[in-house]
Write a structure and sequence with these properties.
The chain is α+β, with helices and mostly antiparallel strands. The chain has helices at 40-48, 94-98, 107-120, 136-148, 166-183, 194-200, 218-223, 228-232, and strands at 2-9, 17-24, 29-33, 55-60, 63-64, 79-82, 154-158, 186-190, 203-208, 211-217, 238-241, 254-257, 262-264, 270-279, 284-290, 293-299, 308-313. It has two domains: 2-231, 3-Layer(aba) Sandwich (Rossmann fold); 236-317, Beta Barrel (OB fold (Dihydrolipoamide Acetyltransferase, E2P)), CATH 2.40.50. The protein contains eight helices and 17 strands. The protein is globular, with a radius of gyration of 23 Å.
Length: 319
Amino acid sequence: MLAVKNVSFGYTDTTVLHNINFTVKKGQNIAVIGESGCGKSTLLKVIYGLYDIEQGEITYKGEPVTGPKHNLIPGMPYMKYLAQDFDLMPYVTAAENVGSFLSNFYPEEKQQRVMELLQIVEMDAFADVKAKYLSGGQQQRIALAKVLALEPEVLLLDEPFSHIDNFRKNALRRNLFAYLKAKGITVMVATHDSTDALSFADETIVIKNGKILDKALSKDVYYNPGDKYTASLFGEVNEIKLELLTLTQNPDETVLIYPHQLKVTDGGPLKVVVKQCYFKGNRYLVKSALGRQVIFFEHYKELPASDEVTLAVDRNAFG
């Protein structure tokens, strides 16, 4: 088990992480989400042991995770950390980058392992291409294969799919997380992409200004967000007064509702004016006005601007 206990940290006198506490069980996939600059990347770096912490402790299987003061080479041997800059050697091939952590004592086994990893990230056709000639997305896939070479017990990934196009990203995520789950590797992924959290993470940690707001099953974080900040990390969200939905007489009570949880219906309690429609493939995201408040909802077809429609909560759209 990975345990982070009462950890606070700052690069300077300014504290970046504030009293962080959580545990991760072996083989779990944990997503860490939050706005840019909230401390996601810093948290992964601290867990890996790239920095010394002045307050709190981090342990893995009961043993302390230590920083540069205790290690000649920062980082723990049973962990691997993938930074956003990839850390590839530009003048050697993709295969040589992936195999750089592997022993040369058994060359045939090494080559087999390298090709296996390149196939997982769909880069086996580029095995002999120097890293400097690869695109940003291709380099990121090589970097993913490289950190998997020695099968770490704990894998820390910082925005691991940020440079990869959607066509490759979806298949890569499925292949990678299925592989990690099958191997029982503990994974923490700092990400701005809610798909990483909702589709693949067992639990999600929400961070704001260096503090943990929530840690729960990803589905629970999505359907029961603690505040609008958390809900907005998954896309557009509406904060609507409950009295407008005729659910309460208290004017101060509000509810957070995602666009897909509202539906157009005759006689609905919310009368809105359509402002703009955004095509999303199988649906439209509609921006509308409820007085001075902006309301987003989803609809199966485009609606003309300035049309008035009434909305109601779709009870079937809640988990």
